[in-house]
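Summary of Year 1 activities. Much of the first year was spent building the evaluation harness for sequence design. The harness presents a backbone, in tokenized form, and records the residue chosen at every position. We chose the following record to illustrate the format because it has been used consistently in internal testing since the harness was completed.
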């Protein structure tokens, strides 16, 4: 089995598919070993289970190939290597299962014949395998729809939060403009007060100057 390097890249869904694929591969290898060590009904049961596991592994690999498109380009090369390794493992398992399935003597034991009913049995097994595969595909489709709905809800909530933040910013901007108006009014008032204070100061200085001149005039008149 492949042992790809773990990376932090990839979507959560891709990682979920990969984890599930590893479990299916481990189960598939165990079933293939059971086929090689058994015969008769036990062997046929192990082959059917291996076929279902192989179908499931193939579906998971297809899902990973689609999901890897959502992975950033900078990390996609490592992910591509991992996907190729999994594909190689699955192809090898297919060849091994085909080889084990062709050994009809071991499959049917002492009851092996060329009876056409064996072909009918194989067709029924393939039909059951196809039904199981369809059910698993439907389950994965439902899971993908659930994730899509959750993503849509998250997007809707995010949009609502952004709208609320925009309203908050708009209100804050309005209050800021209003505050700027108050500041302008205050500045004008302070400037008016400063002008009045300057005028009063000039008047006070003028009065003091006049008084001083009058005092000097009185003193001068007394001595002359």
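For this record, the design step produced the sequence shown next.
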């Amino acid at each position: 089995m492949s042992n790809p390097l773990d990376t932090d890249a990839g979507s959560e869904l891709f990682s979920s598919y990969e984890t599930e694929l590893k479990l299916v591969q481990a189960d598939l290898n165990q079933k293939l070993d059971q086929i090689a060590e058994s015969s008769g009904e036990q062997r046929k049961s192990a082959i059917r289970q291996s076929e279902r596991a192989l179908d499931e592994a193939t579906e998971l690999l297809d899902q990973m190939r689609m999901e890897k498109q959502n992975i950033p380009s900078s990390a996609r090369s490592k992910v591509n290597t991992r996907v190729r390794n999994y594909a190689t493992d699955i192809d090898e398992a297919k060849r091994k299962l085909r080889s084990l399935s062709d050994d009809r003597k071991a499959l049917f034991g002492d009851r092996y014949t060329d009876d056409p009913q064996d072909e009918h049995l194989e067709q029924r097994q393939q039909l059951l395998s196809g039904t199981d595969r369809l059910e698993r595909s439907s389950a994965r489709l439902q899971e993908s729809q659930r994730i899509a709905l959750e993503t849509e809800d998250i997007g809707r909530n995010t949009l609502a939060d952004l709208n609320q933040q925009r309203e908050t910013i708009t209100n804050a901007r309005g209050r800021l403009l209003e505050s700027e108006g108050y500041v302008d009014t205050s500045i004008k008032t302070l400037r008016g007060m400063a002008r009045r204070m300057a005028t009063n100061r000039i008047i006070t200085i003028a009065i003091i100057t006049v008084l001083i001149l009058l005092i000097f005039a009185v003193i001068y008149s007394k001595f002359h």
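The chain has two domains: 12-112, 146-224. Quantitative recovery figures across the full test set are reported in Table 2.
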